[in-house]
Amino acid sequence: MRLPTLTRKSLERHLPILGWSKTYDKDTLTNDLVAALIVTIMLIPQSLAYALLAGLPAEMGLYASILPLVAYAIFGTSRALAVGPVAVVSLMTAAAVGNIAVQGTPEYAAAAITLAFLSGLLLTVMGIFRLGFLANFLSHPVIAGFITASGVLIATSQLKHIFGIKAEGHNLIQLTVSLFENQHLANPITLFIGLATTGFLFWVRKGLKPLLLSLGLKPRLADILAKAGPVGAVAVTTLVTFAFGLQDKGVKIVGDVPMGLPPLTLPSFDAGMWSSLFMSAVLISIIGFVESVSVAQTLATKKRQRIVPDQELVGLGTSNIAAALTGGYPVTGGFARSVVNFDAGAETPAAGAFTAVGILLAALLLTPLLYFLPQATLAATIIVAVLSLVDFSILKKTWTYSKVDFAAVAATILLTLGFGVEMGVSAGVILSIGLFLYKTSRPHVAEVGLVPGTHHFRNILRHKVETHPEIVTLRIDESLYFANARFLEDYIYNRIACDQPIRHVVLMCSAVNEIDMSALESLEAINTRLKDLGIKLHLTEVKGPVMDRLKRSHFLEELTGEVFLAQYDAVIKLARPSAMAAQ
Amino acid sequence: MRLPTLTRKSLERHLPILGWSKTYDKDTLTNDLVAALIVTIMLIPQSLAYALLAGLPAEMGLYASILPLVAYAIFGTSRALAVGPVAVVSLMTAAAVGNIAVQGTPEYAAAAITLAFLSGLLLTVMGIFRLGFLANFLSHPVIAGFITASGVLIATSQLKHIFGIKAEGHNLIQLTVSLFENQHLANPITLFIGLATTGFLFWVRKGLKPLLLSLGLKPRLADILAKAGPVGAVAVTTLVTFAFGLQDKGVKIVGDVPMGLPPLTLPSFDAGMWSSLFMSAVLISIIGFVESVSVAQTLATKKRQRIVPDQELVGLGTSNIAAALTGGYPVTGGFARSVVNFDAGAETPAAGAFTAVGILLAALLLTPLLYFLPQATLAATIIVAVLSLVDFSILKKTWTYSKVDFAAVAATILLTLGFGVEMGVSAGVILSIGLFLYKTSRPHVAEVGLVPGTHHFRNILRHKVETHPEIVTLRIDESLYFANARFLEDYIYNRIACDQPIRHVVLMCSAVNEIDMSALESLEAINTRLKDLGIKLHLTEVKGPVMDRLKRSHFLEELTGEVFLAQYDAVIKLARPSAMAAQ
């Protein structure tokens, strides 16, 4: 049976898999399989490590890397995005779930599952209602600051595993104090394993691939081997621990990781738990979506592909619901692994599905081998991964470019470090919006004059321009709305108070994109007041949509002056009678 | 000792009384005294009535009309504003205090006093930090809607006194249901007094003054007599109740009102109470300030005087602190009584201080006379006063002018009626800001062309203009910032995707008042992407402040095209080579 084209188009929009699967062939398959292999190798230690970062049993990291990837392969629109547990979302999960349950208890795991479900539901609903634009209210600098601060926070939180001590806290101060208090308990063997692994992993990142290439290996093989570095570290430290019985000498190990298929799980439907997790789910959804969509967009642009943000919401939403149903926790598209996936040649989301198969095999077969894996090794994996996210240069960049952006970034970083991830990102959003509103509430108003020999008007303070003593032309560099309506009134009243011969006030509206009801009332007030003083009010360069609206009010009938299409026309006409009078 | 001029100036800024008292003379005194007399006559029944509306003992209304007026006379900048208990703030007080205490208990009165103190503190601090601009975020239509809905709510809440029954509730539905449930308990005598007084007061408003004038009275006397209408109603209904012993026939009376000076009171400093009253205090402060400053500004404009909003905050703040210290409750500048004060000839804030003396005399001497005053009379006073505030025409006005403004007004009215004053005004503010952000996040982008024979560019869809096949000129009608940065990217990518011969994209920035860091990154991305496609990106008519900032980034170095002062220059230059090629 052939579906009618229209239905098929609309089905493809909601099930992107129907689109790309049509042209799937052997070459694509090979490329996807190779990419999947590399990502699987990378993802196994990461999944375990991020689960521990979230305060969850290691196997939940594996479970979160199986069915969610399949869901994304069906519903997602990016061809290179690799979904799974990521560092920042894991930290946010720990912060959210830590508020309502104690780490290590079944309630804690159940809350994490519920969080994934809630977040999945939110994302899916946002996708269906096309609310993807909401993510735009997180400004780029705020995101950059947040990711950097989270990276520092995560790396610090892992130091306890490197030292083999206990340390608690959701912010930098608590963590640092806790580390200092317990440092005398540090376990030398654990510390050695931790430092050696961290050093090794940093070297793998920078030095291994060039070394392998110089040894004559083919680039692709060198790449795979370099990516396998963390797996090597896992294997070596596990073997050493096993061989020397280090677990009896104070080295903390991962221990029992259940072998087998992911369990079927259900989220809690307890209203109290939902309401206490709700705000966290909102924040995790937005942060996860923003991180994911940025990577997806960057990678899509490189291949002239397009991603559909609203459909991405559905893709990530179903992934999280899948995580909740199979013993996982909140997931999103990861930056590092997506880049690896892309570089390794992944051509379709099928690569993600193949990765899922790889992780499934690991969960079925390899978990007993992880018994002796030191937690310090996983901590080292996390530290090396997140430190690549830390980039304080955004502070310098914004400082040079815009103090307002700088303020938002600095506040986000400080609050994230000082009060944890949820506070940091909320403050970042609120501050971005608040500062934007503040700026628009005190708009830039320029008094302009004619640039000689042109029809062009520029700021009298910046350019050599011609003006006329009876005409004041004000260019308002902002839409007029309730927050700045009164500002405009004050500005005009002050301007005319200090200059006697004024007979015309011209408002140049080329930058006025809207005049709302409050601003209209202010304009009416200005018009009346100027009328009493014998001054006429004129408007120029009013835009189409704004003019349409003004025509629906009584303002234009009451206006003492005229509305000119061009500023030049206004000056020519208004200047003339007095020029004649002067003769 | 003479103060140096600078110090004196700065003192006058903070203590406006030092300014106007210098030129105070006998004429001013006479005018102020007459105005004070009329306002006192009007304020006595209103103070009692609004105190009952707030759920407080009647005398607290009088106390709130004494010292607060003196404080405002010292610190306020408006020469006509009459401060005291007002309807909307009384209703908000009832809603706020009703959440934490039961009407009629000492805790309830103590909470109202604390609310006045908190609100006074907030206002004063806002004034000191010059945060008066915050009030601008309440748009005019939202305020109009809120006042109208509050008027309906207040009038409905008073119907129980007219019927002589009980009815509870903070929203229209609860109130109406409660009234219907208890209507069979209505007391016929109370109902008669209530309806007769209401009818009389309406007639006094419309018909009494013309009648007195036609009887040959002098206008000023006619005015004073008409203003004394409510006092007449109070006197007559009190006498009738006393004469016929109506209090024994089910007519509720005011009862004992303590005689004497206002008591000295202290607010509670209980942290729990402060935190539960905090949000209410914020809302009351803002609503009170907005109402007060609107009236003050309107009246000041009529006499070419100026008010200083930040100093007004201090004036109202100290008034509320004064209210808290002398057994009152939250006060603000009232609309009706300020107009009366102004019309009666008040020339300085001293009129307010004289009014305070009048009310003090009433509190010292007249309270025993109020024992038999029926509550129905006070309810009628309130109903007549607030119904003059009700004006649904704002719905029609905004509907014609702007659907967005309409939505904000309609939501404010519905939520105020349905969920009470606090919900209504919060929703109004959030909705105004949310809708503004939403609009700016999807800016109007117009493709423009040259109006023949001019240097002027307009929308190709609205005007007959000249375009060039290789040049796309987009005028962006909004500042570029994080919320719309991605929108611009999508818009441009879509526009160039559907048109082949394009070689130049020109962004006309005459309406771009800011480019923040996020937007800069988007512009960089657009520039790179267009470069890959062999298309050059140009900017025109970039404003001074925006250009200054761009110069501090690397964008201008990377830009494939040029930055032109005028759009016309760009088209002339870019169109030329191809015109030659076509020859």
From TrEMBL, chains A, B:
InterPro entries registered for this protein in UniProt: SLC26A/SulP_dom (IPR011547), SLC26A/SulP_fam (IPR001902), STAS_dom (IPR002645), STAS_dom_sf (IPR036513)
UniProt keywords, alphabetically: Membrane, Transmembrane, Transmembrane helix
GO BP term, pick one: transmembrane transport
Pfam family, one: STAS
STAS domain sequence ranges: 461-574
Transmembrane segments: 33-54, 60-75, 82-102, 108-129, 141-165, 185-204, 224-246, 271-293, 313-331, 351-371, 378-395, 407-438
Entry keyword Membrane: yes
Location in or out of the cell: Membrane
Main location: membrane
Any single GO CC term annotated in Swiss-Prot or TrEMBL for this entry: membrane
Annotated membrane topology: Multi-pass membrane protein
Protein name as annotated: Sulfate permease
